[in-house]
Amino acid sequence: MNRNVSSSLGELYRRGSPGEFPPYFVPAMMTPPPRSPTRSSLPHEGFGSRNEYWNRVQSAIVTVFQQKRIDPLELPEILEIVRDLVKSDVGPFIYEFYRDQLLKKGMVILREKIKHYRDKELLYHLGELWNKFFREILPLIQAILQPIQTKELSIRQVTLLGFRDIVLLKTEFEACVGAGFEIPPAVTQMLLVLQRLRESLPPTENFFKVESLLAQIVDPYLGVRGYYEGGSEPIIPATVVPEVLLRSKSSGDILGEMRKSKPQMHRPLSMQHPASRVLSQHVRQQSASNIVIGPMLDTLEEYEPYRRHSLACYDREGSEV
Known about the structure:
By secondary structure, this protein is mostly helical. It is built from 11 helices and 5 strands, in the order ααααααααααβββαββ. The chain has a 3-stranded antiparallel sheet with strand order 1-2-3, covered by helices on one side. The termini are far apart. The model is unreliable at about 1-5, about 15-45, about 250-280 and about 280-315 (pLDDT under 50).
C-alpha cells in the first residue's frame, strides 16, 4: 500500500479522538517497524505498528476483489490481526475505513471488468461477475472482517450495497432490461438479493430503482410502491409509500445520510387504485375454476416496511398449484 492510503487510518483516528493522539507517533506511521504481529502486544504498541498490520489487511482485501489467490495459511493470521486491531484504539474506525475507502476501491475493480460490455454481453458478464462476487468474494470478505461488530449495517450488508450502488447501477443494465433481452437466472437472483437490503428508513432512491428493475423481470411483483405486472410502474399503487431518502452529495459515504428513526407500525396494506376492487371481486368469482388466489391484496398486513411478497395459488383442497 502507498503512504497516502497508510495514513488514512491515522487521519480517522486523529479526527475521532482529538488530543489523544501523541504527535511523536506520526513519523512512525510513515515508517512502521518490521515486526511480526503478536496477539498480546498489538493493542499496546504504537500506532505505526498497528498501521503496518492494517496495511496487511488492506492488501488481503484488495487481493480478494482482484480475484487473486490468497494463501489459505495466511487467512488465520489476517483474522488474528483484525481481531487485535478491533481491540486497539483504532478499532472503532476500521468499519468506517472499509466502508468509505476499501469497499469503493474494490467495487471499482469489479466494475472495470464489465464496463465495456453492452446489451446481451453485459447481461451475461454481469451474471458471471455476480456469481464470482456472491459465491467467492463476499464470503471471504466476511471471513476476514468477521471480528468487526457494529450497530450499523453489517459487513455483508454494506458490501452488497456497494455492489448495488457502484457496480450494478453504474452500468447500462437498465437499458438492457428495457430492451427486452432475456435475463440470465444469475441476474434475477442478484436483483432479488439486492432488493432485500434495507439500508435506511425511509428507503433511498437506489432502493426504488432496484424495485422497478426487478418488477420488469419478476411478473407479477408486489413491492413497496405497489403491485406490478411487468412494468416499471405499479398498476395498483400502495396507499402509503415512504418518502425517498436522497443521498447526501457532500458526503463520501456510499450510503448517504441515514435517518436514525424507529420504523413505524404499518397498517394493513390497502390500495387506492379502483382496480383493487376489481381484484377482490375476481378472487370471489374464482370458485367456478376451483382456484383461489389468496391471501392477496386486501388481507395482507405489513409489519416489515420493505418486505418482498409473492403471490401463491391454491386449489380448494389447500394444496399449492
